[in-house]
Amino acid sequence: MNEDDIYPLLAPLAGGQVYPYVAPLNQDGQPSISPPWVVFSIISAPESDTLCGQAETMLSVQVDVYSRTISEAREIRSQAYEAIKVLKPESVNNIPGYEPEARLYRASLEFQVLY
């Protein structure tokens, strides 16, 4: 499983402004899009081994929603959770936040997927 498997699930969110790892930036390094937007990242993918070879991989994923309001960020995060349910996520964690430099609220969703 990789970014190509996750993107189609999240693509309809935030008016289609969904990006792996980083939102589009302008030449000054600032986002070149208006909120809301979604960024998702694969944090890790450790593999488990058995005596017979590789057994499984537990993929850790983080989805960050950026918005001007915390309520909109939470709503889109909720939509993201509904979208990824087909992956059978485990260890789901919701994290609120605020980015003072960008003056945006962030609602993060962390989860793991066994495949």
TrEMBL record:
Lineage: superkingdom: Bacteria
Pfam families documented for this protein: Tail_completion_gp17 (PF11367)
InterPro entries associated with the record: Gp17-like
Name the record gives this protein: Putative phage structural component
